Amino acid sequence: MLRSCYFLHFFSTYFPVPALHRRTEHRNAGRRAGAHLEAKYARAVPSAPIATRRASISLIADRAHYEQVTLAIARAQTSVWIASANVKQLLIEAPIGTRDRARGRYVPILDTLQSLADRGVQVRLLHATPPSRPFREELAARAKRLIPPAFEMRACPRVHLKMIAIDGALLYLGSANFTGAGLGAKGDGRRNFEMGVLTDDEWMLDQVQARFDRIWRGVECAACRLRDKCPAPLDGLVRLRATSVRSPSSRASRRT
Fold first, then answer.
1. Which domains occur in the chain, in start order?
2. Neighbour count for residue 176 (Cβ, 10 Å)
3. DSSP 184-195
4. Cα–Cα distance, 38 to 49 (Å, whole number)
5. Chain segment 70-103, per-residue pLDDT in tens
6. pLDDT tens for residues 60-78?
7. 230 closest CA partner among 157, 174, 173, 172
């Protein structure tokens, strides 16, 4: 017995099992475990028809954020909702056919947002930290055109989600903030390593936009335990704007 054990030890040491065989055993073990769990939960959960839906979904990384997400913003027809923890200056290639494009120049993303707002597209930007100084300067330069209701920005310190919903039909959900290093036209050696998904899935769009809307309207503020640290709770902002909208008609009714 001792001699046979020594032989097996010698064989396994100097003639290791091929990697292919090990991978096969690993897959077989996984299948056996999966079959066990499937049988276990099949007994616990009553059988029911499974609802299915068709949707496109793409995994995007790094430079693809600029090509498939940032450039898609300019094609919006009705709305662009953006949520980001940070907001910084974000440069993009100048539009094709312009003098700046011929000169190889880059322009702020606010040029695109201003163009959208001028066309009546609803642009909403939800963020956590104050925007960077260059972004604020560009924003100030467009203060007469980037105005509600076409363009609005609101802040909530708890916002950490990164999403962009375009026309309620295309959704980006991932790691990239609304910054040059995340979504801008930076070179491959300078941009962030980012990853996310791009989809037209209606269920995901509904869920994400509903979450965005609750934060945007201040619905989450009442139960927030950081309210005392928030410089401007959104529920108060919403009530203030609702009052300002109603007040002219109220005065008119009193005059009559």
1. 57-230 (3.30.870.10)
2. 28
3. S---TTTS---E
4. 16
5. 999 999 999 999 999 999 999 999 888 888 888 8
6. 999 999 999 999 999 999 9
7. 157
- Which residue type, as a one-letter code, is found at position 78? T
Residue written as token pair 């440069």: 91
Backbone angles phi, psi at 255, to 5 degrees: -65, -35
Q: Which among 154, 147, 163 has a CA at the least distance from the CA of 131?
A: 154
How many other CB atoms are found less than 10 A from the CB of residue 74? 16
Residues near 131 by beta carbon (within 8 Å), at least 6 away in sequence: 87, 88, 139, 153
HSE (CB half, 13 Å, CA atoms) of 58?
12
Query: How far is residue 158's CA from residue 127's CA, in Å, rounded to a whole number?
Result: 9
- What's the token pair of residue 205? 């769009």
Q: What is the gyration radius of the CA atoms in the chain, in angstroms?
A: 27
79-84/163-166 β-pairing = antiparallel
Measured between alpha carbons, how far is 111 from 95 in angstroms, rounded to an integer?
10
Quote the pTM value: 0.75
Give the position of tokens 């090509």.
Answer: 67
Task: Find the DSSP H helices in 142-224.
Answer: 180-183, 202-216
